[in-house]
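USER: Fancy drafting a protein?

ASSISTANT:
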Amino acid sequence: MGYELGVSRRRKQQERRRRVVLFIVYVALLGAIGAYGYFEGQDEAGRQVEAIYAQVSALEKENEELRQQTEEAVSQHGAALLEARTWRSRYEKDLPTGARLELLELLTQRLEDGVSPARLTEVLKLAEEKRNCDADPSAKRFVVSTPIYDAGPAGAVAFDDGAVVIAATGEPAKNEAGQPEGWFDPREAVTVTFTWRGGDATTVNGVLPLHHAQVVGNREFRFSITSSRRAFASVSLETCAYP
């Protein structure tokens, strides 16, 4: 019996030692696993950090390229805008407007009418701001005809020994009852006809006063037509050397 107790005690001691050894091995194994996981995690974290740095570097490079492209685009846009403004300024400067345009159109029309460039050049060279005109313009009155009243001989006047005959027609005035009178209404438009020796005629339409100028030969005839007393219009003529 004493032998069995000794054997049992040794077995218990061996079992305790085995458990202690197993515990130590287990702890060591856990430590090894933890250490491996830690260092492996460190390596993985390092790789992730390196990847992030690489991405940041790539993004910074891409951002720099985009910035340079933007600056180039802005510079090109500014240059194009400046060029467009330059061309617009040159266009507006070279394009005739106002009096220059009217003069160009007149010159073009005269050339199309058959006047030689040499003649137009000569006229332009002789043109001056100071005009050589009659010192005492002449003036005459005449009756303005209407659709219901023909003034006959009293409805026309002649100037320059019959070189030009002037007549006019207008709308009849109306009384308070709305009935037409025998004279023209100066508030309405009239049509003035200038008939030149040889049969050429020119008309001017509008509310009085009206002004008209026409060149015949080496003289310019300048007319002013105004309303006079009832039924009458007054026309004055000033002649000037041309050009």
In short: The radius of gyration is 56 Å. The chain has a mean pLDDT of 83. The beta strands are 138-143, 156-159, 164-169, 172-174, 180-184, 190-196, 201-206, 210-216, 219-227, 232-241.
